[in-house]
Write a structure and sequence with these properties.
With about 475 residues, the chain is α+β, with helices and mostly antiparallel strands. The chain contains 16 helices and 23 strands. It has a 7-stranded antiparallel β-sheet. Strands 5-6-7-8-12-13 form a 6-stranded antiparallel β-sheet, covered by helices on one side. Catalyzes the formation of phosphoribosylamine from phosphoribosylpyrophosphate (PRPP) and glutamine.
Length: about 475
């Protein structure tokens, strides 16, 4: 299920950048962009800005633990005067929680200033960190993002421009990274050669944007221009978008779980509608796992579109069985399992009149540990549902992810040591069906993708020291 209601799954951050060529302040744009990306991380957030018409070493920033509307207020936003800025919302893996890990990272060095926000996970962090440490680098955090920022700063000492430094650094990075980098006069975006994490470009009048998702551009009324391509660096300077490449790798591996769960339903990623992907998944489930029932419901939010697809394909009416409290943060973001468990009914409640006396098909995006979906099935039955048939719009999780998804260790994944029937019994469902691996290409037609969390095929490699692995 989408353990947004307690999933144990977390996505490793959202990034947003803005550059107003005319010199107007951009902090409010970044604030609303981050607000639209809040689903990608709720532990901390931050904004850094600089004035391209002012002192080149003048950067203003504010970051802290908490949600966007908790960390920032009107006075703080007004104090962040500058026409070029970088923003970040963060979700951490175990061991990476703390204010010091908040982003963007702001570095003052011999060439000036550098602000950077990162989404993803590197798989060669240890090697890079050791290399930098031997030349005198001192690290304040355990994140791979700080390593990237220091690497870019070091490369800048040997290159003619900041974009060349980003390009040189990017060639040394392995794994997943979508970067937004701010310098005194340029906004730069970079996406790893496999394209694990999304990044796109937008524009509103003379203000240019970089964003993890297109939905954030819609929020601020910006026009979507295009996606940053895997292996591409884009530099926004003097009112132009300049494209360069640091890798000519042809194979790509977009995270399939962006389409299944992470991205907002109203986003487009690499030309594919997230909404259509989820509706398609629901239709496939209806074809492969039909059952006699009275009602199809989805678990908010990412299960809703798949439930619509199941209803459309099966002809069984779609209904809204859950009330979601919009003022409660995504419970999967909370780092402790007991917090996730206690948060379920605070966040989600069953509408009894909808399900009472009904045979219900409940569609959700994934089952990780199985604890949350068990609770939701119980909630439906306690509310009077006669039967609860669970349909899952992803295959069973069987492997950890090293590219920016906080999939628990294998011993905590319910599908590793349990059969389909054993999982069904453990969650007390009347029947259970998962999307199959062979069906995944139908969710993003024409695109290659990473399905390592289901298959164990880690196209970007794995870190040598997984126990120390902390991202973003």
């Amino acid at each position: 299920m989408r353990e947004e209601v307690m999933t144990g799954l977390g996505e490793e951050c959202g990034v947003f950048g803005a550059y107003d060529i005319d010199g107007e302040d951009v902090a409010s744009y970044i604030y609303y962009g981050l607000f639209a990306l809040q689903h990608r991380g709720q532990e901390s957030c931050g904004i850094s800005v600089t004035n391209t018409f002012g002192e080149k070493d003048d950067v203003r920033f504010h970051k802290d633990l908490g949600l966007v509307n908790e960390v920032f207020n009107k006075d703080i936003i007004n104090s962040l005067s500058g026409n070029l800025g970088v923003g970040h919302v963060r979700y951490s893996t175990a061991g990476g929680w703390g204010r010091e890990n908040s982003q963007p990272f702001v570095i003052h060095y011999i060439k000036g200033i550098l602000s950077m926000a990162h989404n993803g996970n590197l798989t060669n962090t240890s090697e890079l960190k050791n290399e930098l440490a031997t030349t005198g680098a001192i690290f304040q955090t355990k994140t791979d993002s700080e390593v990237i920022a220091y690497l870019i700063a070091r490369e800048r000492l040997h290159t003619l421009s900041i974009e060349d430094a980003v390009k040189s650094a990017a060639k040394k990075l392995k794994g997943a990274f979508s970067l937004v980098v701010g310098s005194p006069s340029k906004l730069i975006g970079a996406r790893d050669p496999l394209g694990f994490r999304p990044l796109c470009i937008g524009r509103k009048d003379n203000t240019f944007f970089l964003s993890s998702e297109s939905a954030a551009l819609d929020t601020i009324g910006a026009e979507f221009i295009r996606d940053v391509e895997p292996g591409e660096i884009v530099t926004i300077a003097d009112g132009e978008i300049i494209s360069d490449r640091f890798s000519e790798r042809i194979e790509t591996a977009r995270c399939i779980f962006e389409y299944i769960y992470f991205a907002r339903t109203d986003s487009f990623i690499d030309g594919v509608s997230v909404y259509k992907s989820r509706v398609e998944a629901g239709g496939i489930l209806a074809k492969k796992f039909p059952v006699e029932a009275d009602l199809v419901v989805g678990v908010p939010e990412s299960g809703l579109a798949s439930a619509v697809g199941y209803s459309q394909e099966s002809g069984i009416p779609y209904g809204m069985a859950f009330y979601k409290n919009s003022y409660v943060g995504r419970t999967f973001i909370k780092p402790k399992q007991n917090e996730r468990t206690s948060g379920v009914q605070v966040k989600l409640n069953v509408i009894r009149d909808v399900v009472k006396g009904k045979r219900v098909i409940m569609v959700d995006d994934s089952i990780v540990r199985g604890t949350t979906i068990r609770n939701i099935v119980k909630m439906l039955k306690d509310a009077g549902a006669l039967e609860v048939h669970v349909r899952v719009s992803s295959p069973p999780f069987k492997f950890p992810c090293y590219y920016g998804t906080d999939v628990p260790s294998r011993e905590n994944l319910v599908a590793v040591n349990n059969s389909l029937e054993e999982i069904r019994e453990s969650i007390n469902a009347d029947s259970l069906g998962f999307l199959e691996i062979d069906d995944l290409p139908k969710l993003c037609p024409g695109l290659s993708f990473c399905d390592a969390c289901f298959t164990g095929n880690h196209k970007g490699g794995i870190p040598k020291e997984t126990e120390d692995f902390t991202c973003c």
